[in-house]
Amino acid sequence: MSESAASAAAALLDRIQAPEGGGREIPDAATRDVIGRAPVHSVTHLDRAIARAKAAQPGWETLGHEERSALLVAAADAIDAHAEALAHLLSREQGKPLNGPNARFELGACSAWLRTNAATVLDPQVLVDDETLHAELVYKAVGVVGAIGPWNWPLMITIWQIGPSLRMGNTVVAKPSEYTPLSVLALLAVINDVLPADVLIGVSGDREVGARLASHPDIDKIMFTGSTATGRRIIESSAGNLARLTLELGGNDAGIVLPGTDVTAIAEDLFWGAFINTGQTCAALKRLYVHDSVYDEVVDALAGIAASVPIGNGLDENNVLGPLQNRAQFDIVSRLVEEAKSRGARVVTGGEAAPELGELFYRPTIVADIDNDAALVQEEQFGPALPVIRYSDVDEAFALANAVEVGLGASVWSSDPDAAREVATRMQSGTVWINSHGGLHPMVPFGGVKSSGYGLEFGVEGLKSVAVSQVVSGPGRTAQA
Known about the structure:
- The active site is at 248.
- GO terms for molecular function: geranial dehydrogenase activity.
- Belongs to the aldehyde dehydrogenase family.
- The chain is α/β, with parallel strands linked by helices.
- It is built from 17 helices and 20 strands.
- It has a 7-stranded mixed β-sheet, sandwiched between helices. Strands 7-6-5-8-9-19 form a 6-stranded mixed β-sheet, with helices on both faces. It has a 3-stranded antiparallel β-sheet with strand order 3-4-20.
- It is globular.
- The relative contact order is 0.14.
């Protein structure tokens, strides 16, 4: 990372952080040095922000799709112009390295998703068009959207929430995670350089602010990405205002490697399906079921990659894995791996902290010969530790994969993609990938089933999710004639 990018990041930080002596200190995930001070907004501040967003919404909707789309493209251009500075700040605050599928990748996704939101067409749907009746289904703005983001992909997921919302004529009040507020507020500042006033407002605060956002009577839609437990609280909080909800909640994604699979061909994709962002990804591969015939080969291949992948401070251009973002998550990973060890599971590589790298670094870990009922299998680890479970019967593997309360993503791996596709729908998950895991496309809908939430994001379905439908019904062709 160049000095100019670091200077530009510092300039962005100066625009959004709290005045000296105020706010809350935010640490560098790798070094634990203080990056800056995040504003700590109150519920009163939030109420004022929502009032401003509500007042701005009719004018924003009146601009029309074409002009709003042009402004989203301008926002994407602004992100591209500040991408290196934003990546620098993101790498420090979240911990992910600049290179690999990490910080620079995340900034590229922000721009790409905004451009896709701008270009996606959502035409009225003609329901009936005959001699007696012409009926159409049209889509209008919901109103004010409350966007509550996570700390693992803070910029990209914020764009997933605000991009379609703005495109459909809504205004947005966005609350970042308390762990990663600085990079999100910097992103919003860059976008707001091209948007009209009060169309997009960032509010940085604690859980009390988040709860008020979900329950506020002037919030018409909530978009939330985070834990299932918090999602349930948001459902309860939103009952009073009947806000519409899109909830992308916890996952414990399973992958199944079918008999006879060419391990060499899939090993690299298997590894990154699990370890992208140091395993801190909602739709990462978190449990891997492997057939007896290829079990040892898969374990050895994954362990070899895990032992050799560069890990360290994200600002080092050579690294592609970083630390856990926060102490609470580090402790969860440590606990789950230690419990697996105590049950007799075999740690093939890793299985311990890396204190020489920093306080929150944990070595990439492959755990083999582990029982399916181990906590590392049954709980979402959200970190760099992958349990590999042996199976001999394919029906049993699918039963074990589905025997959890969540269902975000899943994958099937085989040298015969057609055979994998035939069985893929047996997975109880919102998305099933074939010979990959976790890849997303801005035009392909994404969402969970069971306790992984509800509602779809991305593409045409994503635009519909931040709109209200209206039927316009009138005379048919005969009556018009």
